[in-house]
Write a structure and sequence with these properties.
With about 475 residues, this protein is of the alpha/beta class. The protein has helices spanning about 1-15, 25, 35-50, 50-65, 70-85, 145-150, 175-180, 180-195, 235-245, 295-315, 340-345, 375-390, 430-435, 445-465, and strands at about 90-105, 105-115, 115-120, 120-125, 135-140, 160, 200, 230, 250-255, 260-270, 275-285, 325-330, 355-360, 365-375, 400-405, 420-425. It folds into two domains: about 20-100 and about 260-465, Zn peptidases (Aminopeptidase, 3-Layer(aba) Sandwich); about 105-255, Glucose Oxidase, domain 1 (3-Layer(bba) Sandwich), CATH 3.50.30.30.
């Protein structure tokens, strides 16, 4: 009885949403107000029940961390294919990608002087290992490049610690991640060029409970590759205090990290095929890989299930837009971006028919809108104006905005082809508390916030795929791939 009543309710709620498309419709001006009722229905339906959290629970608890080249990542890729097929989507497939296989191995860090003290650490992705007996050396602490240069020959034979604190989150300025993370990325290169034997970095987070945060690093053109690892903010502060008081600090670093070359992996594709212009595509997605600590719940398991469930909600509602909505789950975002580059290469011939690409890779917190970019500044302003109208339809979820800014690492390779790129923006005050750490686990995800992210993505993707003119084009503009 309840199932019958639910079916009747759905039929009444969603009846008459999809309409036939005509050439006249194709050239009509966009009126976002025409989509208000549909947007509200999508939001109501998503909040009434969706499977995003159940999917994320399976991904996190049944599979766990998913580093490129690992068996866990390949299990996650197969799982995503299975789920997309179970939800009835078209053209579900894997597209091959070769990815780097970096293996962490065992690792440890112990202070020897001025007292014995074991310290938590996480080797940085891509780092070389130490000799079997480790590296024992004095620590020199610097805040930035200027202090490293000022140290001069004192760096020779030392282990350099970059103690550059990440600022507290600012609602206006954001996290400050973009400036602080440079020492994780380039610290080993800078230290090696000064004669250091290893590099430590203060974890890129403003809050910590003795939790180190890993991430990718690169050697660039450094004349020598030295081991690099992240330590906790607490231990970084302690070492800085000791050296500031003139204490000699000696540590022993052991890392079995190694590069095992390339391994086969894949991007995952699934589609809600468009009813009249199926060759025009709106891409939504996240990245399937995650660091080998924690569960990759916010980064980026949530982004994957947000995209997967967005088209599943639309399909269950019977909402088939004019254009195709394509879910892409990219592999190897964290330590190589091979998936994003391979997708742009594999689909180069159809990128002119990509109407938009949206990536969710900032966690599943309360959605706040979208940032967007386009290679053409004038076209970007048109897109921005349209998106500022569209996000008003999302206000039943909460305040929303659209602004110029970065989009997503995996969709970046499509920018040169003129694809409008967008990133799902969320309330980010706590994201870097968990980012790339053992604490990025399912219990940190609020099911209501995840649901609202799904609704935000579903509404936006549907409208972009269904609006008569393509995003960024006026009624008078020629439409590529038109009737």
């Amino acid at each position: 009885m309840m199932r019958a009543l639910f079916g009747l309710l759905r039929a009444c709620l969603f009846a008459g949403t999809a309409v036939a498309d005509t050439p006249a419709d194709r050239r009509a001006d966009v009126s976002f107000a025409d989509y208000r009722a549909t947007a509200e229905r999508i939001i109501v339906a998503t909040r009434a029940g969706n499977r995003a959290y159940a999917k994320l629970e399976e991904l996190c608890d049944d599979i766990g961390h998913r580093l490129s080249g690992s068996d866990e990542l390949e299990r996650a890729i197969d799982w995503a294919v299975q789920k997309l097929k179970e939800d009835g989507h078209e053209n579900v497939r894997k597209e091959p990608v070769m990815v780097p296989r970096w293996v962490r191995g065992r690792e440890s860090l112990d202070m020897i002087e001025p007292r014995a003290h074991p310290m938590p650490l996480l080797g940085l992705g891509g780092s070389v290992g130490t000799p079997p007996d480790g590296i024992t050396a004095e620590v020199i602490v610097v805040a930035d490049e200027n202090e490293l240069d000022a140290a001069g020959d004192a760096v020779q034979g030392k282990i350099v610690l970059f103690n550059n604190p990440m600022p507290e989150y600012d609602p206006e300025k954001g996290s400050g991640y973009g400036t602080t993370v440079r020492f994780r990325g380039r610290g080993a290169h800078l230290a090696a060029n000064k004669g250091a034997v290893a590099c430590l970095v203060r974890s890129v987070t403003a809050r910590s409970l003795q939790s180190p945060h890993t991430g990718a690093m690169r050697y660039g053109d450094a004349h020598k590759k030295i081991p690099a690892a992240a330590i906790t903010t607490e231990d970084a502060s302690m070492l800085a205090r000791l050296t500031a008081r003139g204490k000699r600090v000696v540590v022993r670093l052991k890392m079995e990290a190694r590069d095992e070359g390339q391994a086969p992996s894949a991007n995952v594709i699934g589609e809600l095929r468009g009813r009249t212009h199926p060759d025009e595509i709106v891409v939504i997605g996240g990245h399937s890989d995650a660091w080998d600590v924690g569960q990759g719940a916010h980064d980026d398991g949530a982004g994957c299930v947000i995209a997967m469930e967005a088209i599943s909600v639309l399909r269950r509602m019977g909402l088939i837009p004019r254009r195709t909505i394509r879910v892409v789950l990219w592999t190897n975002e964290e330590n190589g971006l091979a998936g994003g580059r391979q997708y742009a290469n594999d689909h180069a011939s159809e990128l002119p028919n990509h109407v938009a690409a949206i990536e969710s890779d900032s966690g599943a917190f309360r959605p706040e809108g979208f940032t967007l970019e386009h290679k053409d500044p004038q076209r970007q302003q048109v897109v921005l104006a349209q998106m500022r109208e569209l996000v008003h339809l999302l206000e039943p979820i909460g305040p929303m905005k659209a602004s110029a800014g970065g989009s997503g690492a995996d969709i970046g390779p499509m920018k040169s082809a003129g694809v409008p790129l967008m990133g799902l923006e969320v309330e980010g005050s706590t994201y870097f508390d968990y980012h790339h750490s053992p604490a990025d686990t399912l219990d940190k995800v609020d099911p209501q916030h995840l649901t609202d992210c799904v609704a935000t993505m579903a509404v936006t993707a549907y409208i972009l795929a269904d609006m008569p003119a393509r995003l960024g084009e006026s009624a008078e503009a020629p439409t590529r791939g038109s009737d």
